[in-house]
Amino acid sequence: MTTPNQKDRRRSNTGPSLRQRADAAYKAKEPAEKNAPEATPSPEAARMIIRELRVHQIELELQAGELRRSEQELNEAQRLSRIGSWWFDTATNEVHLTAELFRMLGLDPASAPPPFSEHHRLFTPESWQRLSAAISRAQVLGVPYELELEMVRADGPQGWMLVRGEQVRDARGLVTGLRGIAQDITGRKQAEKALRRSEERYRELVNNLEAGVVIHAPDTSIITNNPRAMALLGLNEGQMSGRQAIDPNWKFLHDDHTPFLPHEFPVNRIVAEKRALRDMVLGIIRPGSGNVAWVSVNGVPVFDQRGELSEVIISFVDITGRKQADDRLRENEERFRVFFEDSPDAYLILEIKDYGKISACNKATEAMLRGSRAQILGMAIADVSPRRQPDGKLSSEAAANRIHDTITRGRNNFEWMHKRLDGEEFWAHVTISIITIRGRLVLLASWRDITDRKQAEQEITRLNAELEHRVLERTAELEAANKELEAFSYTVSHDLRAPLRAIDGFSRIALDRPDTELSNAARQALHSVRDGAQQMGRLIDDLLAFSHMSRQVVRKRRVSPGTLVRECLETLRPETTGRRVEISTGELPGCEADEALLKLVWMNLLSNALKYTRPRDPAQIEIGCRNDGEQVYFVRDNGVGFNMAYADKLFGVFQRLHRAEDFEGTGVGLATAQRIIHRHGGRIWAEAEVDQGATFFFTLEPRKTS
Amino acid sequence: MTPPIEILLVEDNPSDLKLTLHAFEVHKLTNKIQVARDGEEALDFIFCREAFSDRDITCPPKLILLDLKLPKIDGLEVLKAIRGDPRTSTIPVVMLTSSKEERDIIASYQLGVNSYIVKPVDFDQFTEAARVLGLYWLLLNHPPVVPTPTAAKG
After folding, report:
1. How many CB pairs under 8 A join A and B?
2. Does A199 map to a domain?
3. Closest to B21 (Cα-Cα) out of B106, B84, B96
4. What CATH code is carried by the domain that includes residue A367?
5. Is A380 found in the same domain as A293?
6. How far apart are CA A677 and CA A699, in angstroms?
7. Residues B64-85: pLDDT tens digits?
8. CB B98 to CB A493 under 8 A?
9. Which terminus of chain B, N or C, has fewer Cβ atoms within 10 Å?
């Protein structure tokens, strides 16, 4: 708010001069003076002088007022602009400061300005050092200065001032002092400091970000970046700066590991599209190692005031771990998809809530049902089954029961008659289990078309029936053959002996005649006839026993071989008369066998041992059992042994390894023993050497397969 | 009046027949042997039929030696007939046969044979068997008093 007077005053510089204004003021103030007596010499002259003096006085008063106002205005201006001024008289060392400067320095404007010698107290030592150097240079060399100085104020917080100073010279060009201004820049300094702090904070923040940040110029060259960006890109500062996105050394991969084309690079896309880019997955092939770092990229274009693109800010975070996990998950998904989708079995997901409606299925399901997924999904089990199952139950009810069972037991499998969409029915083997998909319980069903198997089963049933029939036929044939065999052996038993008896008997009767009637040769011949007949009788007996034994049923029970051996040796005692025979019997553990048959085995082996040790004195026979993971009984002798080359003939019927004149026998004993052992499921074998004795081993149990 | 028959030998094989007779002869056991060549003839003799109708059924032989395998009616059938008739059921019957078949032996004993002897092939053993047989059944054994029809009636 300004008054018109004030306006006038402001115009005073360009208005009438002080002399004119003083003159006008004298006339207005002193009208009475016109009548005042004029002094001598001439009253007119005196009046003139007085008037002149009064005008001059008024002029001085006006001048003083003007000066005061001017000074006030200067002060006001300095206060408002926070600029003070000063001058320094070199001759007197006096310092003049304006009121604003007093305020700035925290001094009382009413007090005397501090002498120059005290000025160092007004500033921090560093500032004072700069100031005093500048003052010296200004005084001596005339170099003006401008310094920002930190004040040490008596009354409070530190502040900053901007000081300008220059030489002052008098009319003769001599340096009389320095003068200048000082401006309080505390506010600016604080703002600068705050800005610097803020910038530092920002830089600190950017430099410590987990995200890599790169700022590109519109030509895509890199303006700046943070260390994380270098680390992620695998480049150093030199390699980074100025690099452009078209640089062929950039090697990036898409999410699916296919390479990026240059125009797909994030910065190029932002430059081209002028819009932000969000969450782009990108693989960085690190130069050198070739390792891939996966990042998620965000980018924004920055426009200047004219709307021109000025920068592109790209940030990216390392998602390698997540990406690898994602890839693994995806691989698993892929694997599962292949497993689910390409499985030859039909897989379906049935919704429990929707009473078993099909919510997912695979290719095999489509093939099995001969329909498309669009048709199948949403169908209920009853829709893909005949109305009734072969057992007569309604498919819908039976299916509900099956689902209920599955929910109760967690798993279920059964055979089910399904119906293809074209109406054809087929047997399926169904496996259902409860699984959880994202917290939701559903049924996973797999169907295997078992039509072929069912047919095969029918075929097997048919073949079994046929086989059974054939077995019956064969059994009948076998029975007939057995009967024939029995009739045969009966005939042998009964009819073949009679002629032998006649041969032997009549030879004997002939031999009973007095000596004179038969020559010695004839007698010898008749003896041979009798021997032959008797031998044949034994053969027939053994053969019949052998065939009889083969037809006999094996009745196993607990048997003590030790007892059997003692009984056999007792029976064979006549064989040992007149001989030295040393028999040692070891531990013979019990076994499961047909007692009578097993005794026959021991009998054959022991009588053989006694027979073939006849040339030995003493004969040594060892009977025992060793355990080779199974019980192996054995009979060892020191008899004549045999050549192992013929071992395979040992157990054949009528096979003999010794001449009848050396050792009598029919060759049926070992064959009988072998047949008995085989009928028990065991094995019999021998180890021998000519003249070194023989050992016969046998087992009674089938060999355990392990 | 001829002395009563002591042994009925039922044997179809002529060699066996000759040898058996020879064996008895060697041991001078008896000359009162009646030979029947098949089952039918044996039964005719025992039950005094046909050619033997003039025989007295109350004077049975002391021993019947019976072969198993016989023409027309076999040994087991003959045995069965003998045991089936109270007039003949107590006559000692010994099977003298070549068969060692267990079922023959069992069947014979089940039908009430007194002994079962397998004819040895060896003639010496055979004659020895005949000697023991005759000694036992003709000399040592006491047959029961055969109940006569009159005695049965009385």
Report:
1. 65
2. no
3. B96
4. 3.30.450.20
5. no
6. 7
7. 999 988 888 889 999 999 999 9
8. yes
9. N
